[in-house]
Amino acid sequence: MFGFLNINKPPDCTSHDVVAILRKSLGIKKTGHSGTLDPFAGGVLVIGVGDATRLLEYLPQDKIYLAEITFGTGTDTDDITGQVIKKSNFIPSVDEIKNVSKQFFGKIRQKPPIYSAIKINGNRSYDLARENKISQDKMNEREIEIYSIEIILYTPPRLNLKIHCSGGTYIRSLARDLGNVLNSCAVLSRLQRITGNGFTIQESVSPELINKTNIFNYLIQPQDVIKLKKIHLDSKQINEIMHGREIKVSLDFMPNINKNLQILDTNDRLIGIGLLTENYMLKPKKIFLKEGMVSSVQT
């Protein structure tokens, strides 16, 4: 098995739980997800099956969320599931929200929640938080990008937003920071990822519906979705690449040097990923073709 699955993760389970369900139903251990979705959240979770786990990094990294933020309460997890650590009687107006939300557009610096999977000196932040060994002010900022924030509905104290952002963005942190700049406090009370890594929730499927019998109805070929230019090679060239040798290639498009390319055979089967270096030399990076299969590649 080789490809991606567009899974609709249900709320109240972890991303790892979804992976475990699929490993059991498919009988394949090599399965992984493209990025954690909080346990209380639902929506798109892209799963790599087999060697396609090695291609998750080449998927588009932006995400779109539907988020509900509730003002007047702050928690240690920055979402509704945490322990309340702050209260405020001030609930901002929609105009105040619109004015300050401009501060969150574009590239900004953001501190992840202390209850997150980020590693700090080899330890998960959430483990340190449970042992009271870390505080919010000790978290390092990271650069993220918010492409758009759209107010869908505001029925105080609940604010519903549609957020398009880069990978690595914590919507919980956005809720916390929005509350702070409005001289109130806020938590993320609901979250659904409707687009992630190039996949949409409309085409997603429940993990319980997938099994060994119907897996190929849902498996998506990586070359159809990863955002790398393609180069087609013949069997002789593939044989060289497969054995780790660089080859000189010709391209029908203007290349960018030191960029990765998808390597395909003449039947559009994905062979691997290669790095295009100077003088049109293609260097193999990740190869998926097995020994003994070269003879089946058509020239």
Description:
By secondary structure, the chain is α+β, with helices and mostly antiparallel strands. It has three domains: 3-60 and 198-223, Pseudouridine synthase (2-Layer Sandwich), CATH 3.30.2350; 65-189, Pseudouridine synthase (2-Layer Sandwich), CATH 3.30.2350.10; 228-296, PUA domain (Archaeosine Trna-guanine Transglycosylase, Chain: A, domain 4, Roll), CATH 2.30.130.10. It is 16% helix and 35% strand. It has helices at residues 15-26, 94-101, 125-130, 171-181, 215-218, 235-242; strands at 3-9, 31-33, 42-49, 63-71, 73-75, 84-87, 106-110, 119-120, 123-124, 142-155, 158-165, 186-196, 199-200, 230-232, 247-248, 259-264, 270-277, 281-287. Strands 1, 2, 3, 4, 7, 10, 11, 12 and 13 form a nine-stranded mixed β-sheet that branches. It has a five-stranded mixed β-sheet with strand order 14-16-17-18-15. Strands 5-6 form a two-stranded antiparallel sheet. The protein is elongated and about 70 Å long. The model is unreliable at 291-299 (pLDDT under 50).
Structural class: alpha+beta
CATH topology (fold) name of the largest domain: Pseudouridine synthase
Basic shape: elongated
% residues in beta strands:
25-35%
Q: Percent helix among the residues?
A: 10-25%
